[in-house]
Structures
1.
Amino acid sequence: MNNFEVKIWDDERRFCTFYTVQFEDSDENETDKFFIRFDNFPTYESATQALLSFILLSIGDDHGAIDELLNRYEEEVIGLPVKGRVKLGEFTYNYPDFPLRIYVLKITDEIVVLFNGGIKDGPTNMESSLHHNWVEACEFARRIIDGIKDGAVVVDEVNRNLLNGKGTEEIFL
């Protein structure tokens, strides 16, 4: 896997800061690639908007990255949207037979790294066309987790930030 940067994707939400990853030689980050690709695909436009709303509003503004909403564990990453029917106060989240998956790494309830994803067209990730995206997301997650363990990535829970080992926001792995 090539080198990549961990960078802020959205830090204006009430409960959660979202990060993404971008390969050194790419003009687009992985999360934007996902949303641009499927928002421009008429069959998936509605699902894309529902997933974006779930991330920004439900996780970002309403609840944070709580386990109830990030419950689809798939090795090192979590698949979104939520699995099953989840009721939180007046909100009920249910996405039966949802056609898309985007993968994330939960750092804390207030810090999440978003990756890429794809069409969930098989019973498992191994048998689905999104297999490559899942494998890649798991590799990104492993490298970020290793970076946290060895001090190359520092989690600033007070400010909901990720920093490099020198205390700045430029994180290259």
2.
Amino acid sequence: MAADIETFNLRLRRWVLIIGILQVLFGCLVGLVPPTAVPWFRGIVMAHIEFTSNGVLMTVMGLLASELHLPRLLLHLWLWTLLIGTWANGSSGVVAGFTGRSTMLLPTANQGFPPPHGVDNPFATALLLVSGFAIVVALLLTLAGLIRSRDMRAARPG
């Protein structure tokens, strides 16, 4: 049973690392969108920054995956909240950039770079709210898994 969870952790680690690097690459590609291609270029800049930084977060989480001592179900929850949270974050910028409508959750960006079609984009708002919730859950699960890892090592004899 322990070997099964270790094999699962190693596969999970590998896939989270691949997805993290893919997300950084995707963020770089989003950054190649020309300013004239979208109504609100600031949304694309935001998406570029969010995808690349969240890709780095995903990559770091991949490096930590084998250290997490969580039940298999919680490891699945950890993976899905991490995926949903990091991808929804950058996606909100893509949606805002291509629609020209931002969200009230970005007051600083809206003030410095007013979107041409307003700040009432419910889809971009929902993506940011989902992202925030999911990333917080993933981080809490990461902390729990790391703390349990230390506790389990301390409890082992020898």
3.
Amino acid sequence: MIAGLLFTAALVADPVGAPPQAAAAQADSARPAPIADTDLREFAAIAGRKVVGRPVGGPYPTADKVLLIRRDDKGYPVVAASLGFPVRQSLPAPPDGTLAVVRLHQRSETIVPGPTADDLAFVAANKLPLFVIGEWARPAPMWEVAWVDDAVRFRTIGEVGEIGPWRD
């Protein structure tokens, strides 16, 4: 898991020797938006739902699946890293260059299905879009969690991409 994060960090690292002004301009333009662009939302829905039901390899047999989303050199969304993460554990801050994170929960831990407190805390701390997919049902329910109007809010993403209203 740590090797995957280090590998991802190396992929998105700034080039060595870049002038300070260029690095500052690149950092401002690379700063992810708190609400995902439409193409990122659609990509997260397709890529995330493709892995629903697939087993997680590694030391965590009942782990959540986590996908880190960024853009390739042509500007298209890609999965920069795919890893298993222990259930009921808060996600660490993703590496620079990550535009959105997809987390697939195998079981619902809330009375009313939706994002967990850890999911909401991740968005509050990182101001980065998080897509939560529930693997416990078919079709898999999906929520977008984002930093909207200085608060963490979430909304449902339907099977064909329709979005619901923002909720607290």
